[in-house]
Design a protein that fits this description.
Blueprint: E1 3-4, E2 7-8, H1 10-14, E3 26-27, E4 33-39, E5 48-50, E6 55-74, E7 79-87, E8 95-99, E9 112-117, E10 138-139, E11 145-146, H2 149-165
């Protein structure tokens, strides 16, 4: 499944990794684990204190990856694509980290990986309606045009899309 909308892979753009021609160059950038250093923290709760450095080292490790995607049709090329819209976790992040416990070993074999359909409304990715038949123009006895139900619905859709783009409607 090819998903569009990812950034370039950091190690590819930085040129610090060997890259085969068939390796993807776009994706989710994340660390398997991260180290936090707190100078002068002698209590060092749930970490490893190094006396020479006078620092406490704590760690987090990856627990889960969750991506949100939308399905979009490109009318010019008559193709369909999955578009990456962000992550499932707080702040739209794609990775959930857990605090490491001193003495526990992590092998990263139980990392959960999910891809979820993003059902939030996004005016920029909204499905563009094909030109639809809105019915014959109808006039009343005075020659004044009367909107058909299809014309009213289309006008309302346009108003809602414009309101969403302006941020007046939140999902």
């Amino acid at each position: 499944m090819e998903v569009k909308g990812f950034n370039h892979c950091k190690m590819f753009t930085d040129g610090i990794a060997f890259w085969e021609n068939d390796y993807p160059k776009h994706g989710v950038n994340f660390k398997l684990w991260d180290q936090v250093t707190k100078k002068g923290d002698r209590t060092c709760s749930n970490g490893i204190y190094n006396e020479q450095a006078d620092a406490c080292f704590t760690y987090t490790y990856i627990k889960q990856i969750c991506l949100l995607v939308k399905f979009k049709r490109d009318r010019q090329t008559n193709t369909y694509s999955w578009i990456y819209t962000g992550g499932c976790f707080e702040g739209g992040k794609p990775v959930l980290y857990k605090e490491a416990v001193v003495g526990e070993v992590q092998n990263f074999k139980t990392i959960q990986f999910e891809v979820r359909m993003d059902n939030r409304f996004d005016a920029d990715l909204a499905y563009e309606e094909e030109e639809e038949y809105l019915g014959e123009e109808i006039e009343d006895e005075n020659g004044v045009k009367i909107e058909t139900t299809a014309q009213k619905i289309k006008k309302e859709k346009i108003k809602l899309n414009e309101a969403a783009k302006a941020g007046e409607i939140q999902n």
